[in-house]
Design goal:
By secondary structure, this protein is α+β, with helices and mostly antiparallel strands. Helices cover 28% and strands 32% of the residues. A hairpin with an 8-residue loop joins strand 6 and strand 7.
Length: 232
């Protein structure tokens, strides 16, 4: 399966690969991945704007986002790190126009080792205020992206042992007459903020309403623990 492209309408994202001649399930999934990737960075810009409205209340920088070679016990492998090529514009916008402090981007795609699909990491780390409002804004921005529809509204999860709230939702996209969907979860803890979006071939056959968002939130929390590391 060819590698999908990732994550950035601000600045512009690399274009997704052209659809295959036959509309196979994998082709449909890859088409949707391109749309999902775009919306994730739109959401990222939205949460930084929220944090920039206040001149006070910025926490100390204690954590950063990393992009390890594998995620989830080796089940996903890093396919491309876009933090330098695509994340520099986001960093500059955050610092010059929105007043975010010490912003850095962490943008990448991962591929499952044994099946099709793609997992997208769209993150920023630094110092942010208004974390709850920012998280809600980024998820709203994701659902309002062109050609995407909110299928399952955002729901907050306070998971046992977690020190931050996760918000999860499901979006759908009409790709050549075939509706496919993708779950996504996001967090903002004052130092790190990210949206994790994933789409797999199986998602193309299921109902969005039947997706277990609590399980997706638990999975996202595991991913966060692997991405988020202490500074120093």
């Amino acid at each position: 399966m060819s590698q999908p492209q990732p994550l950035i309408p601000m600045p512009p994202s690399p274009s997704p690969p052209p659809p295959p001649p036959k509309r196979s399930r994998v082709g449909i999934v890859l088409g949707v991945v391109g749309g999902v990737v775009g919306l994730l960075i739109v959401a990222a810009t939205a949460w930084v704007v929220v944090g920039a409205d206040s001149d006070s209340g910025f926490p100390a920088a204690e954590y950063r986002l990393t992009l390890p070679e594998t995620l989830l016990d080796g089940g996903y492998e890093l396919t491309q790190d876009f933090s330098d090529s695509s994340g520099s514009g986001l960093k500059e916008e955050a610092e010059s126009r929105w007043g975010a402090r010490d912003a850095r981007a962490a943008v990448a795609t991962y591929a499952p080792v044994n099946l099709g699909g793609q997992l997208n990491v769209s993150g920023v780390y630094g110092r942010f205020t208004n974390s709850d409002e920012a998280r809600a804004t980024m998820m709203k921005g994701a659902a309002n992206t062109e050609n995407l529809t909110l299928a399952v509204p955002p729901k907050d999860f306070e998971l046992a042992g977690a020190d931050t709230t996760l918000t999860c939702q499901v979006i759908t996209m009409d790709n050549g007459g075939a509706e496919v969907f993708a779950p996504m979860c996001g967090w903002n803890d004052g130092n790190t903020a990210a949206v994790i979006g994933e789409i797999t071939p199986g998602n193309a056959a299921d109902s969005p309403e039947d997706l277990d968002l609590a399980a997706v939130a638990e999975r996202t929390l595991r991913i966060r623990s692997e991405l988020r590391k202490p500074i120093g």
